[in-house]
Amino acid sequence: MRNEPITITREQARRLILLRQGLLGKYRFAGKDGAYRYVRQAGCIQYDPVDVCGKNAELTLLSRVKGFTKKTLADLLYKDRLLVDYADKELAIWAREDWPYFAPYRERSRVHGKQFQGLSELEEKAIAYIREHGPVSSDTLPLEGTIFWHSSMHWSGHWEKESQAARSVLEQLYTDGVLLIHHKSGTRKYYDLAEKYFDAELLNAPSPCPDAEAFRQWRVARRIGAVGLLWNRRSDAWLGMDMSTEERNRAFAELKESGRICEVRTEGIRFPLYLLKEDLPLLESVLDDTADRKPRLEFLAPLDPMLWDRKLIEALWDFQYSWEIYTPREKRRYGYYVLPVLYGEKLIGRMEAVAERKTQSLEVRHIWYEEGVRQTAKLRTAMEGAVKRLAAFNDSTEIRWDREST
């Protein structure tokens, strides 16, 4: 084990992250097993319901997993039950093996729910109804009226004055771990009893972490592993962890002291970066230049794990990316749903594509290349191949190019 910081170049730092992500060289992940293994490696992938040319979690897997389809993820979540939808980095998708780690979180939710008058009675009615009738959504659960309620899954601190009873009860039971998402229809969630899909040993397993400090260290290490290299700075990489700067500093110090993470110094970057101890062999392959570096062209999801720390991406790649979906149209620099374009080891631009379901076509509305990128025949071939994969992924039988914008 290395005790002293390792010094690497920015190029080597970029290469390590890309290799860890499975975005450089031949595909390391393939099919359903590959999708599952990538989620296990990342710890979690962020869920977002917006579907312009694929949802965020789907696009994250599409860029890494050979042969990935939307059905692949749906089966892992709702047929095989190897993955679950639950809170982590906001609403996320992670492996069911991690269920025990979040036992304290579910207990906190149950304590939180006891504050609301009348909620427990409604919960009993909802459980009885689901046990008899099967999966329900907020539209099909026959609980009328509203209640004063606020989910502990959200950290905004704003209390809802009134909430639809059926929706509130389902979300509370889901956060408590009593319900799981059975399936989704579009953006609508259908819930069923967790006991039907997870055995009692897993459902009731205590957390492997003895205290909140250990849980925090586990999550910090998990987020470092999700990116590959990460620094100890405030960023979206820590979303959902409700962690102060002091607590984060302490977690990093303990992880470093115990040898679970290793410090890396990168030329030209002021702050140290950290990687998991288990990734030291990968770093050695980068330093020895023995890793597979065959270039691929991939479109990255807006909330891709690699992009969780935007300042780190800018420091390593000189690439600024902002997801402008919530930016007013007149203030957008690029577009509503724009995907970064990775070609080999470089972020070369951005692409806006829309899957038109009615016409079964994929519209490539714009490609913005970074300054200095040469649009060679090789690049055009790689771009066209990636767009064809995206079209097939969205069941599009036609690709429409806005040639003036490319």
Can you put this structure into words, describing what you see?
By secondary structure, this protein is α+β, with helices and mostly antiparallel strands. It has a domain of 84 residues: Orthogonal Bundle (Arc Repressor Mutant, subunit A). 35% of the residues lie in helices and 20% in strands. It has 13 helices and 18 strands. The strands form six sheets. Strands 14-15-16-17-18 form a five-stranded mixed sheet, covered by helices on one side. It has a four-stranded mixed sheet with strand order 1-12-13-11. The N and C termini lie far apart (49 Å).
Mean pLDDT: 93
Number of strands: 18
Strand order of the largest sheet: 14-15-16-17-18
Please tell me the CATH architecture of the domain at 114-197 by its name: Orthogonal Bundle
Q: Unreliable runs, pLDDT <50, ≥5 residues?
A: 154-161
Distance between the termini: 49 Å
Secondary structure layout plus pairing:
Blueprint: E1 6-8, H1 10-21, E2 29-30, H2 31-42, E3 45-46, H3 56-62, E4 65-66, H4 70-78, E5 83-88, E6 90-95, H5 103-113, H6 119-133, E7 146-147, E8 163-164, H7 165-176, E9 179-185, E10 188-193, H8 200-203, H9 212-227, E11 230-231, H10 245-257, E12 261-266, E13 273-276, H11 280-287, E14 297-299, H12 310-317, E15 338-343, E16 346-356, E17 361-369, H13 377-393, E18 398-401
Parallel strand pairs: 1-12, 2-4, 17-18
Antiparallel strand pairs: 3-6, 5-6, 7-8, 9-10, 11-13, 12-13, 14-15, 15-16, 16-17
Helix pairs in contact: 1-11, 5-7, 6-7, 9-10
